[in-house]
Amino acid sequence: MDPLPSETNAAAGHSARLDIPSFAQRCRDACNDEWEAASAHPFVRSLIDGTLDAQRFRFYQMQDARYLEAYADTCSILSTRFVAPTDKLWFIDGARLAIVVEQELHAGYGKELGYTPDDVAALVCSPNNTAYQNHMLQAAGRRSLVEGLAALAPCPWLYTDIGMRMLDELGSIPDDHPYAAWLATYADPSFMTYTSELLSIMERVACEHNGALLDAAVEAFRQSVRYEWKFWEQAWTQQTWPV
Fold it and tell me: What is the pTM of this model?
């Protein structure tokens, strides 16, 4: 399958653009191959063109609902590591966003695809999902603050990038697209604003460090990008535990 258009071209085709600070750009440049592989995964391509099998999308949605619980926990942990009330509140709001706003999207698809909140609560997380959650939570709680932020950033940034590329490719989301609601969420300008603010905070924290700590943060970012690919893959293959 052809890769998605580049981030630069996607931004150029629309009035909104994502401001990428220098440390975020360093992280992005360090894992370009992994980033492009995640962006062009067959799951993503099939999702955008509307040919994705409903069972694969159902598997993804349910696993994603559990992932978002860990994303919210990661934001909550990071909020405790800031001193400024405005920073604390930003990450508390981020935790709330993951739990409330995105769960509303899952609730809608749950009715359509035949799963309930109880089904999600009883779900066994896939190996890839479990590993990704553990990576974020460990980075947020046990590593430097800049590493914690770097481990968190790829999720919203990659989704924002895919949303921008999608709009560049499609122009607009067709009303009859089977996954229109999901696509609209990540193409929304407010999601781009959220990502921009997160990258700005990461830049501010990164400016307080140098050397090995920043190198470690770049690696934490790279690992999360790899896990983004693995998350698409676990949905594409409907991964289960081997034993």
Answer: 0.91
